[in-house]
Amino acid sequence: MVNPWIQFLISAAIIIYAGSKLTRNAAVVAENTGIGSAWVGAMLLPLATSLPELVTTLTAVSIDAPDLALGNLLGSCLYNLALLAMLDMLIGRGNLTARLIQGHIVTVTLSIMTLSLVSIAMLGILVIPVGWIGLESVIIAMVYIFGSRLIYRYEQKNALLSKRDEHFQDNYKLPSTRLALLQFMAAAVIIIAAGVVITDAADRIAITTGLGHSFVGSIFLAISTGLPETVTTVSAMRLGYLDMAVANVFGANVVNVFLVFWADLLYLQAPLLSRVLEIHLLSSIMIIMLSAVFVFGLVYRSERKLFRVGFDSWLILAGYLMTVYLIFTFGGN
Question: Are the beta carbons of 315 and 286 closer than 8 angstroms?
Fold first, then answer.
């Protein structure tokens, strides 16, 4: 059997390569079709980069491990928010939120709405089953479908606001839209395969180190399956598509919460969110709070910064690290 650390590193390298190709070709589609880079970042990219989360979550549900499934999804949302702070540090040109279109508020609000439904379901105060799944999961699916249409319509009305950042330049020649779509799909397939392999490696590493089950799902597994989001977000930023990069973060969070519906659909024993540990409620609430911090930054648009990084990014990073500590300390198994 291959050493899990070698398996992890090789898979990570493959995901990094495929993720960069995914971003470049998504950018070509956005430019050539005129559908807008923000919509591509919010809806098209996350559907591809969230494929590892889909595979690992449904696998966890099939082996009757609801905490691992939900921990993976919420942990990925937390990790994606931490990417915003890293973006701000990589750019080094001032407060990130002050340079973005305010249209991201639409996607962030959609994320907050669906996460609020998850939190309500985990409180256990009102459990309304629809067949074997929870009503909250059904509403999450409806909000996602309706919200996707709203984001697309908003981007169509504001397409000129999501163009490439003029500070960034490169010299590569853009391929045709058809070739870009083919390369996009090929990169997505590679990410699926590599995502499954890296998850297996991460699980084996976690078992041998004796980490708790909730911690493995919420932190270690989430970071592993979040590599595609990391690569595509950073690649989009380096290409000058700042709005696409940020839209990818919140779009991935919306997709991750949407996957709760599919996990609930496959979990036949009972509504999924009624069978998980209370520690996941902490994750859900922290994601909502940190998303609200980002919205505040978008609206307030402060130019003040600390070590060339916006204060909102520092708050998001601090919130992520505090949540990791609490999950590790009180997460249980």
Answer: no
Task: List Cβ neighbours of 22 (8 Å cut-off, separation of 6 or more).
Answer: 45, 48, 49, 184, 187, 188, 191, 228, 231, 232
Residues 287 and 113 sit within 8 Å (Cβ to Cβ): no
Question: In the structure encoding, which two tokens stand for residue 108, read together?
Answer: 């962030």
Which two three-digit tokens encode residue 118? 């998850």
Left (φ > 0), alpha (ψ -120 to 50) or beta: where does 13 sit? alpha
pLDDT in tens, the chain (333 residues): 678 878 888 887 887 777 777 767 766 766 666 555 555 555 666 766 777 777 778 877 887 878 888 888 998 899 989 888 877 777 766 677 777 777 788 889 989 999 998 998 888 766 677 778 888 889 999 988 888 788 767 766 665 444 444 444 444 455 677 787 788 888 888 877 887 787 777 777 777 776 665 666 677 777 777 777 777 777 777 777 777 778 778 888 888 899 999 999 888 888 888 888 888 899 999 999 999 998 888 888 777 777 777 788 888 889 999 998 888 787 655
CA-CA distances (angstroms) from residue 202 to 8, 61, 188, 253, 327? 7, 17, 20, 21, 18
> How far is the C-alpha of 289 from the C-alpha of 305, rounded, in Å?
20
Joined together, the tokens standing for residue 39 give 């919509």
Distance from chain centroid for Cα 250: 6
Which numeric CATH code is attached to 4-161+175-330? 1.20.1420.30
**What does the longest C-alpha to C-alpha distance in the chain come to?**
57
